[in-house]
Amino acid sequence: MKRKIFWKLFFILATGLVTFFYLVHTITLKTEEKMSFIKAEHRAELRAWGEKAESYYVQKDFVGLEKYLQEIEQQENVWVSVVGFKAEQFAGKPYDKDIVGYYHFGRSIDWKIHLYFSDNPIMELPFQEYGASFLIRLPERMRPGTHWLTTKFALQIVIPMMLLILLTLILYRHIITPLHRLDNATLAFSKGDLSVRVGQHFAKRDDELSHLAKTFDSMASRIGELIENQRQLIADLSHELRTPLTRLDIAVENFDSSNSSQHLERISRESKQIRKLVENTLTFAWLENEQPKIMQEQVELVDLLDVLIEDARFEFACKFIECELPNSAVISDSSHKALCPAIENVLRNALKYTPCKETVSVRLTQQQDHYLLEINDSGPGIPEHLLDKIFEPFFRVDDSRMAESDSFGLGLALAKRHLLSVGANIYALNQKSGGLSVKITIPKLQM
């Protein structure tokens, strides 16, 4: 697991938030700087006042200058004056050295205005060539940054909070939406919809949640398969039990002391068949559900085949078994308990459908990483489209062929499940010369 969600969150929250607040800080400073300058139209108005005051000054019309300054003062309710560079007052109210300073009288109208000072600054517009300046305390209406505190609050509090809410919503949807899909799928699955899957909704993702979706789909597929198999197995078992139970009922109902041995024989036979059917079904269900990997011991295949072939020759005395076996075939980490019943079922099945005086051949050959066991019979074979189905439980090619048999269609199904438990595989082919060929591949060593 590469913790992709962790890195996504780290990138968004750590890197993203640091970058975001850096940008907020930078934008705030830029905005503050921009808002610290007097507007262009106000600067033009101040220049116009200064130029007119300068015209009075140039003409030595100090009475007119005084009257003009009083008009500005009354109009704007501000301090206004014209002062020479030698601190010589020509008109207006006396200047205050604490206001105008010792080396300059005021601020240029092109400079920034401090937004955090409560008092408006003195603005200075120097005359061109005459050693004096027009001074005016900046009118309140011209003061820049009127809405600075509101703007600052919006930039540093409101906008970041709204963006964080949006980011939280995106992250929430990114994580919770797939969890809701999984929750809905789990609920639907618990209500019996075994076909529900969520993988298609996570096709564009590649993180822990997509891995969880794949795990859910795998689990749903496996559980659905188990449930369907169990349903089918129960239905098949119920169907198969009807015939022996019916015969058993008939034998019990018709039981009489005059022919007791015949009825007892029938009852015993049907009881054994029912027991065998139930035991095989339970074994098959366990192998199907658990899918165990039985790899515990070393197995000598040749010795195992010798024992099985000897028993088969005794049981099917009217049929011939030809063998082609190596001197030794040892496989590691396998199980006699799995291989023995599997091979025995296949061999008995081949002998069952081979007519008397005909031959079943058994051949074991060594391949690169496995052994190949071939069991070929001389029976009628199986239609090509049914070759894969013979390993399904309770499957019969046709009832007429099975009428003479006590088999319930579990032999080859059990054989396949046993072989899968040790990593082996089984499949069937029709021989060109007639008859069925069952091939079993057995790995030499389980990894």
Automatic annotation (TrEMBL):
Any Pfam family the entry gives: HK_sensor
Intracellular or extracellular location(s): Cell membrane
GO MF annotation list: ATP binding; phosphorelay sensor kinase activity
SUPFAM superfamilies xref list: ATPase domain of HSP90 chaperone/DNA topoisomerase II/histidine kinase (SSF55874), HAMP domain-like (SSF158472), Homodimeric domain of signal transducing histidine kinase (SSF47384)
Catalytic activity: ATP + protein L-histidine = ADP + protein N-phospho-L-histidine
Membrane topology field: Multi-pass membrane protein
Enzyme Commission number(s) of this protein: 2.7.13.3
Domain Histidine kinase: 236-446
Domain HAMP stretches: 173-228
Keywords assigned: ATP-binding, Cell membrane, Kinase, Membrane, Nucleotide-binding, Phosphoprotein, Transferase, Transmembrane, Transmembrane helix
Keyword Cell cycle: no
Any one cellular-component term (Gene Ontology): plasma membrane
Gene3D superfamilies: 1.10.287.130, HAMP domain in histidine kinase, Histidine kinase-like ATPase, C-terminal domain, Two-component histidine kinase, sensor domain
TM region positions: 153-172
Alphabetized PANTHER family for the sequence: SENSOR PROTEIN CREC, SENSOR PROTEIN RSTB
Protein name: histidine kinase
